[in-house]
Amino acid sequence: MTAKIYNELCGLFDNLQSIFLLIARLVVAYGFYEPALMKWNDINSVASWFATLGIPFPTLSAYLASTAELLGVVLIAIGFLTRIMSIPLMIVMVVAIFTVHIGNGFSAGDNGFEIPLYYLIFLGLFLSNGAGKFSVDYLIFKK
Questions:
Q1: Does residue 2 lie within any of the structural domains?
Q2: Is residue 35 part of a domain?
Q3: Residue 25 neighbours by CB under 8 Å, 6+ apart
Q4: Is the dihedral of CA 13, 15, 21, 23 positive or negative?
Q5: Contacts of residue 83, Cβ cutoff 8 Å, sequence gap at least 6
Q6: Using an 8 Å Cβ cutoff, are 82 and 135 in contact?
Q7: What are phi and psi of 135, to 5 degrees?
Q8: pLDDT (tens digit, 9 = 90+) per residue, 44-92?
Q9: Are 108 and 94 in contact (CB under 8 A)?
Q10: Which of 15, 63, 131, 136 has the fewest other C-beta atoms within 10 Å?
């Protein structure tokens, strides 16, 4: 009896997966939007900052990170190539955590790694689950 009720509830909850994946994609895309624009609007300053952080090939890295973020905003929002786009964005988050935030501890209030870690986790969910039914991926690939 308990297993039957549990399975019925799980079936109902499965229907919510795509809705929450859509909401999560939109929130993550929105979170990347402003930083991506800021980087592109002053790419030379970003490259200089990357150099001070010891990031190799700072100009190339600034362009790669900025492109990943800006392209990611669009593709994650519409749910196109979501799993693939999650990978470069995850790399950006790992680099941000270890070059900028980790020395400040966990708390977001202290510019710690809390927020980039949350983005990394969401991106990991997109990588492992895809974009859900409300996405271009689903329309094209039916998966």
A1: no
A2: yes
A3: 76, 77, 79, 82, 126, 131, 132, 135
A4: negative
A5: 126, 127, 130, 131, 137
A6: yes
A7: -155, 160
A8: 999 999 999 999 999 999 999 999 999 999 999 999 999 999 999 999 9
A9: no
A10: 15
The token duo for 44 is 């030379």
In degrees, rounded to 5, the angle at the alpha carbon of residue 46 between the alpha carbons of residues 59 and 100 is 110
Instruction: Indicate whether 105 belongs to any domain.
Output: yes
pTM: 0.91
Token duo for residue 15: 């229907």
**What distance in Å separates the CA atoms of residue 105 and residue 18, rounded to the nearest whole number?**
33
* Residue showing tokens 């402003």: 34
Structural domains counted in the chain: 1
In a domain, 134, yes or no: yes
